[in-house]
Amino acid sequence: MAASSSFTIIHPLLLSLISSALALASASEIRTIFLPTFKDPPSGLHTAHFLHPSSPLLVDLNGPFFSIDCRNYNFQFLSCNSNACGIAGGGRFCRNGTCSVLTDDPFTGIRFPGDLAQDVILVLALDQQDHCCGRADVPDFMFLCAPPSLFQPPFPDAVKGIAGLGHTPTSLPMQLAADFGYPREFALCLAGGAGGIFFGRIPRVHQFMNYTPLSMGEQGEYTISVTSININDKKIPSIGPISAKISTTKPYPILEHFLFTSVTDFFAQELARVPRALPLSPFGLCFDARFLPEVIPNIDLVLDGDVKWVVLGNDAMIRMRPNISCLGFVDGGAWIGNPAMTIGVSLIEEKMLHFDLARTRIGFAASRVSQAFNFSNLNNGPIIP
């Protein structure tokens, strides 16, 4: 895959990691592959960065493919009768002798066609002391050539691809596990600035994490079961169990209308003495920020296994204007079926998530402040505690 001649804006931290990644690690030395991620403030979404391809890619937790804009790259298309084409799953078809598939736009859900190809990608690898970074080749990596017209807003600026992390044979974690013999697991660590995704030997997280069953859908999407929702340690009546999809392409959590109404009404009761403000899109419950208490009631998602995903109340409030703060939950309208809730980026940031695909479970600290992993370690020192 020849490098693109187009100019790409490079984050200063990524530039320092690239400049330090001088040694090409042998396969036996590669215990962990590390993808730096950065938040795009205008969109509220996150991008993943590779040594090659050089353009930033959208982090799509449920994406079934590693997709890029293939212009200005040289690569080998997959033929329709190749073994690699056979693992691409449903929706594939033959176009001019090339293996092609239909997949979904991560924002609109509209299907688009793309041709499958193979080439080498170049990633960052941690050394034996868990410092970043060496370089690692991933040969014969399968990716989807997506139409250039796909990468328009709401895709973040400069993004020219999708780092799909879904539970499919063609996704990034599943291909890396097959290529390097890694366990089928990864850790997602999105932050307000620099974060990362770990494959292979991931941070030692088990001692401080709670685990709940993880379901994988036919399209590779990840969902968990929410048995009830508590606000200020009080259970909201008539809620649960519901299915909740975890998403990195939705900036905020989205609730089906009935669920949204139940949550916001209950939350408003807990702040009954705080004057309300007119709602500001995309939110439906806003307050006069001048009268908010110092400590906002927490929102607990109670999951299978009686573990809690704690949303700190102060984190749940979004400052929209100097004197207006809104509860950062979005009304998704009325719909039939699952999931009734989407856990968006704002609930994922600063929280390490361990996707243990082999055991169909997900691990996380109960709240952002209770986890042992320090996101500042992504900038210096050993990355893995």
Please explain how this structure is put together.
This protein has 385 residues and is mainly β. 11% of the residues lie in helices and 37% in strands. It is built from six helices and 28 strands. The strands form three sheets. Strands 14, 15, 16, 17, 18, 21, 22, 25 and 26 form a nine-stranded mixed β-sheet that branches. A seven-stranded mixed beta barrel has the order 1-2-3-10-4-9-8. It has a four-stranded antiparallel β-sheet with strand order 19-20-24-23. A hairpin with a 6-residue loop joins strand 7 (98-104) and strand 8 (111-126). The longest helix has 14 residues, at 257-270. It starts with 11 loop residues before the first helix and ends in a 21-residue tail after the last strand. The model is unreliable at 2-10 (pLDDT under 50).
